[in-house]
Amino acid sequence: MRTQIGIVGAGPAGLVLAHLLHLHGIESVVVETRSRKYIEERVRAGLLEQGTVNLLIETGVGERLQRECLTHHGIELRFNRRGHRIDFDALTGGKTVTIYAQHEVIKDLVAARLAAGLPLILEAENVSVHGLNSASPSIRFRMAGEEQEVHCDYIAGCDGFHGICRPSIPDGVLTEFERVYPFGWLGILAKAPPSSEELVYNYHERGFALLTMRTREISRLYLQVPHDEDINSWPDDRIWSELRLRTAVDGDWKLNEGPIFQKNIAPMRSYVVEPMQYGKMFLAGDAAHIVPPTGAKGLNLAVADVRIMAQAFAEFYATGKTHLLENYSQKCLRRVWKAQRFSWWMTSMLHRFDTDNAFDQRRQLAELDYVTSSRAAMTTLAENYVGLPWD
Ligand SMILES: Cc1cc2nc3c(=O)[nH]c(=O)nc-3n(C[C@H](O)[C@H](O)[C@H](O)COP(=O)(O)OP(=O)(O)OC[C@H]3O[C@@H](n4cnc5c(N)ncnc54)[C@H](O)[C@@H]3O)c2cc1C
After folding, report:
1. Which member of 19, 73, 204, 297 is catalytic?
2. What sign does the dihedral 386-340-226-232 (CA atoms) show?
3. Is there a catalytic annotation at residue 222?
4. Of ligand 1's atoms, which has the minimum distance to the CA of residue 13?
5. Which residues pair with 177 in a beta bridge?
6. Could you tell me the distance, in angstroms and rounded to a whole number, from the CA of residue 155 to the centre of ligand 1?
């Protein structure tokens, strides 16, 4: 097989890239290890920045999103039993964020790709990349017992944090930057209408909790837990009782409860590799960087990366110029590090750390007080949360 861009991974990064390349008239083949059912049901992110939403709508894959999404104009920070709203409309000149699950985005992109009759290879085994410094790099894999090879001009490594693209780069080329947090998020999906119209970030002496949602009928709720926590030690009753404690607020607000139908614990990590390129291979999304989910930036960063990558490939195929490809890593990293800073800051402000002492707790409360009372501080939070400009 021969194509222009070989894409490893059919997550948000790989599928959005394939879609944008198609609109530029550039051929691609997407190679993914998992099945269609698996990628369309994998529960992950749920909050899209305005830029991500605009891109999906403008490129023709936002029709269902527009019909089914929930638009949010702010968030609440809750501490000391009081809620404080950060009003995005007023602070950012009318920008909003959108609730629409990552796996719904994936369904829309897979449907668009298959409807256009474009190659999406699923359930590939033993995927590997070769000739990264050659004129014709390739992706090899096993399919129905047969070895296959896709030769291409360039490879896009969109295979997430545990993929094979980043580890295929020779030792000594990449520099890694990492912070691992001593806690994770226990996340649940529950058949219960959201208890609040907008997301509620709760700082509590027992640990952080987040109230969010997937639809008007389904709540998505998170609790900070130790990083090595066993999910079996969290029966449903314990989860609800802990959520009630950490989200308690003065007044007549009540936590809506219902049957829990999905639960898992996700570790928290900040991670970046530099550069996001080696030879003919470009990394995007979680393959190159991970953020703790507190700022809801992971999926949005993946989309921002591949938008830049698609523009660079478009310039190359239209003019032969490699200027944008050469600047890809530098351009992405400028935005990636700002999202890293914001995600780290939100995480540090809202979570209890193992080393917490009374000083740190007072300092965190003072910061929350400042962030919810100074217009300048609220604006800083709001403009980062809705998403910094792409260019
Ligand atoms: C449990 C969890 C909860 C999250 N919650 C949030 C949230 O609330 N908000 C937010 O913004 N972000 C969240 N994230 C992060 C967000 O989901 C990711 O940033 C986003 O999925 C990144 O997209 P991606 O395409 O780069 O990588 P991925 O979504 O990881 O996609 C990579 C794809 O590559 C495939 N693959 C892997 N190895 C290979 C291989 N060898 N060959 C071929 N294919 C391969 C994988 O199967 C996968 O389909 C969460 C992540 C997790 C794990």
Report:
1. 297
2. positive
3. no
4. 25
5. 272
6. 18
The residue annotated as part of the active site, out of 293, 328, 331, 351, is: 293
> Which of the listed residues 110, 138, 299, 303 should we mutate to test ligand 1's pocket, taking the one with most ligand atoms within 8 A of CB?
299
Q: Assess whether 297 carries a catalytic annotation.
A: yes
pLDDT one-digit tens code per residue, 363-383: 999 999 999 999 999 999 999
As a whole number of angstroms, the distance between CA 345 and CA 72 comes to 22
Encode burial over 183-195: b for 16+ CB neighbours within 10 A, e otherwise.
bbbbbbbbebebb
- In the prediction, which pLDDT does 210 show? 98
Tokens of 142: 């096993």
Among candidates 390, 371, 302, 381, which has minimal Cα distance to 343?
A: 381
Q: Look up the pTM and report it.
A: 0.95
State yes or no: pLDDT of 355 exceeds 70.
no
User: What's the token pair of residue 48?
Assistant: 């899209």
DSSP alpha helices (H): ranges in 253-357?
298-319, 323-326, 328-350
Enumerate the β-bridge partners of residue 180.
269
Q: Using the 8-state DSSP alphabet, how is residue 2 labeled? A: B
Give the mutation target among 128, 286, 347 for probing the ligand 1 site: most ligand atoms within 8 A of CB: 286
Main-chain dihedrals φ then ψ at residue 73, nearest 5 degrees: -105, 5
Alpha-carbon gap, residue 207 to 186, rounded angstroms: 12
Write out the two tokens for 80: 């000391």
Q: Judge contact between 96 and 50, C-beta under 8 A.
A: yes
Residue of 372, 367, 375 whose CA lies nearest to 91: 375
pLDDT digits (tens, 9 = 90+) for 174-194: 999 999 999 999 999 999 999
22 in catalytic set: no
Range 327-354 average pLDDT: 96
Amino acid, single-letter form, for residue 176: E
Q: Is position 293 annotated as part of the catalytic site?
A: yes
- Tell me what the mean pLDDT of segment 58-78 comes to: 97
- Nearest-CA residue for atom 48 of ligand 1: 11
Q: Is 130 an active-site residue?
A: no
Distance of CA 284 to the CA centre of its chain: 12
Angle at 338 between CA 337 and CA 341, to 5 degrees: 85
